[in-house]
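Lecture notes, unit on protein representations.

Consider one protein chain, 251 amino acids long.
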Amino acid sequence: MVLRRLVDGMRRQDWFTVVVEILVVVIGIFLGLQVDDWNERRKDRADEREFVAQLHDDLLLAESQASRVRKRRLDLIADLASSADMIFDRAEQISLSTAECTAIGNSRFFNIVISELPSLTELVGAGRLRIIQDSELRLAILELQQRIGALKDLIPLQTLVRVDMPIEYPDLIQTSSYFDRALGEYQQRYQCDLQGMRASSAFKSAISLSIDAYDAYLRDGLIPWFEQIEDVHRILDLRLGIDHSANEQGP
């Protein structure tokens, strides 16, 4: 209809009508684009709210799944360091403590639950990270992605250079299994021959490699990963108005 009036106006050289009809078309297209843009932005804001809430839930689950093993890994490096002091005659004790001996035996373990964060995976996979308006949150999410990738790459690399001490030195580290009722899982019990360790140059070299590998695993992988999870969690709490301190204090 508009096109017909436009053609008729041009034939009659009724330029006023032509201009009016062109303006009608242009304004109609403009308004249509504006409505589409408004609808798209409204959908983005709704999707952003849903994503932020879901990501918060995903982070809570990730922290819960990893927290116990994370604490073990962090505690282990301190016991490894003190055991090394005794093995290399920098301390006068005549025997290793249970924790120090256990640290040597467990220095072979690098595994930890690295949650994929389904909400983040879906958003990035769809190429819609742009819907996150908060630049601090968006950058923190991107950094978390990098930390997850770095930890996944680091674990197999450090596993290659570490030494399975109980397997390589069964005469110096004796192993037995038991069921820990408090944790609800099987654990390893170790007995260490400190004097034999001190006398073995090969063992000293191996434990040095294991400690270096474990330190790199924590410093370059596990600690930055978990710190970034906590940073994203902090930003999400601010966005959502969530205060976890009340839950932590208890009744």
